[in-house]
Amino acid sequence: MDIEALATGILAGERRALARAITLVESGRADHRQSAMALIERLNAADHGRQAMRIGLSGTPGVGKSTFIESFGMMLTGQGLKVAVLAVDPSSARSGGSILGDKTRMEHLSREKNAFIRPSPSQSHLGGVARRTREAIGLCEAAGFDVVLVETVGVGQSETVVAEMTDLFLLLLAPAGGDELQGVKRGIMEMADIILINKADGELKSQAVRTCADYAGALRLLRKRPQDPEGFPKALTVSAVEETGLAKAWEEMQSLTEWRREAGHFEARRAGQARYWFEAEVREGLLARLKREPVKGALERMALEVEAGEVTPAAAADTLLRDYLGG
Amino acid sequence: MDIEALATGILAGERRALARAITLVESGRADHRQSAMALIERLNAADHGRQAMRIGLSGTPGVGKSTFIESFGMMLTGQGLKVAVLAVDPSSARSGGSILGDKTRMEHLSREKNAFIRPSPSQSHLGGVARRTREAIGLCEAAGFDVVLVETVGVGQSETVVAEMTDLFLLLLAPAGGDELQGVKRGIMEMADIILINKADGELKSQAVRTCADYAGALRLLRKRPQDPEGFPKALTVSAVEETGLAKAWEEMQSLTEWRREAGHFEARRAGQARYWFEAEVREGLLARLKREPVKGALERMALEVEAGEVTPAAAADTLLRDYLGG
Ligand SMILES: Nc1nc2c(ncn2[C@@H]2O[C@H](COP(=O)(O)OP(=O)(O)OP(=O)(O)O)[C@@H](O)[C@H]2O)c(=O)[nH]1
Ligand SMILES: Nc1nc2c(ncn2[C@@H]2O[C@H](COP(=O)(O)OP(=O)(O)OP(=O)(O)O)[C@@H](O)[C@H]2O)c(=O)[nH]1
Ligand SMILES: [Mg+2]
Ligand SMILES: [Mg+2]
């Protein structure tokens, strides 16, 4: 693997080099991992100073994420911006990755020279969803992309993961009436900087406006965060199909980012995220030892005893640490 | 330390034995820890079959937690039930523990023979907030208490900790108008089984009713959990001072618990919690190694380099694990 050539290619903004580099960070092979780390160190040392706006985007299936990315991405490339699209899909039940099949829904964007769309890898390749995506973001940034969109389907912890690696977080919701309004997972609203009610068009428009007001109300019930200027987080309506509200949404993202830059929150968040991922990698490395035999088998055996009340959690933990983890 | 005598005393429901045992589990001394574990094992082996209703109670300062516990606790002891009150206060800025000074607010309950109130220990004694409280709950249960109330001031992660050791979780809120409705920390609503709007009396009554409706609305925006029967989580108004709404709240707690018992959620939750704490103790034991020198110093040094972008999170973690943690 010619790391130097790959690094040069990426810094020159070559899509093929970028694609190959992402494949490298996605690989589970130990030698690939070594190369990936060398590449990333190499790019880090290049001190390119490029900084993309990293945008997380979450929403349940069918809410219109792909359609939104297509329209929103086309608007941005139309303004001369380079746009990369990545996906985090930890469950990855969908064969072949989440965006791949969607390239049909991103018909124009996928043919756009200033856009780069990367499907999430199939499950077999997964070697740390968070690390993979986080490193891919860094590669896109090094390749000179202005905006990196990270899509995630709202399952479990994936939003948290995405929020910890992006500068701002969008939650895409569908218009809903009355009883249907149960769809937002608790704790997700917590992360949103901007809630976008999509499909605000045709028959759904008035419903979208009402839903938007409902969520605006719900957002007001939550405590203000230091990283939010007056009026944020906010709820807006958009139509990915009719391409309305997109410019306004982009304006809000820019003004929010601007404010955070000036207030020092932007850099602080990035530094905090870097520390967060460092500590997470250390912890994961340490905890990975629990997944190796014979620790793993012993842990499960004892967990069953604990569940059954035969031994208390503390005593069982004590035994395990002493007998299997050299503590 | 005569563990056998202590165990016998607790099983006989003696308050002095219970108080001494809690002091033991709170201690940070290694020999005390050994005794505490022996005691807990001994009680576990006694197979007493006693099961309290473990109720978590959270709310910001001044919302009326102490007053509520006084009124609610007196109502329960009036019905012949034995009530224990514990506190989780991880920040413990308040000197001498959070309930101690409050005993004046629990004037009647603190003199009630069927009630047991335990202040949270001062910070110096803290040796794992979660473990201490969880084990104290177990001791109260072994001592034959019917209801164990675990109070926490809503700071950071303490609600999560309490929710993971209780059977149901109450969130106490104050009536608020319009702009004031920003007080609920995101993610907390997620845990609540019942939201109680306190101070629904006098001038505040109509405001409390409106606030209650607002939160009922907000709860409907959240996704239904499998452990909830129709209509839960719900919001109710109470007045701790006028003692209204308390019987209704208790009724709801009982019917919720009943439903969960029949549906198997109650036992499943307890078993899940036991496993959770076992795994948490194992992880904590392992991660405690990061807090010992020289690992600790190296971690902090490298974290600063990571924050400054001099080295990437993955590379830094790799180095730390290799050089300091025998990986
Ligand atoms: N009316 C209307 N329909 C839309 C809009 N955006 C998306 N849709 C439709 O909603 C359906 C789902 O859109 P997608 O973009 O595939 O949704 P998704 O969130 O990517 O779904 P998954 O990839 O399955 O998670 C499609 O039929 C779209 O045409 C919109 O703004 N208005
Ligand atoms: N009107 C009214 N006042 C109440 C009620 N409950 C409590 N209060 C008052 O609210 C104030 C705070 O009550 P506490 O019970 O000390 O509140 P707390 O939540 O325990 O506060 P901290 O211990 O500081 O976290 C006191 O002045 C109480 O008298 C109620 O039901 N109605
Ligand atoms: Mg899609
Ligand atoms: Mg109090």
UniProtKB/TrEMBL annotation, chains A, B:
- For the keyword Cytoplasm, the answer is no
Q: Lyase as a keyword?
A: no
Q: Which GO terms describe its molecular function?
A: hydrolase activity
Please state the Enzyme Commission number of this protein.
Answer: 3.6.5.-
Database matches in InterPro entries: GTPase_ArgK (IPR005129), P-loop_NTPase (IPR027417)
UniProt entry keywords in alphabetical sequence: Hydrolase
The record's CDD domains line, in alphabetical order, gives:
MMAA-like
Q: Which Pfam families match?
A: MeaB
**What family does this chain come from, according to its entry?**
Belongs to the SIMIBI class G3E GTPase family. ArgK/MeaB subfamily.
The name of this protein is Methylmalonyl Co-A mutase-associated GTPase MeaB
Source species, please?
Litorisediminicola beolgyonensis
The gene behind this protein is meaB
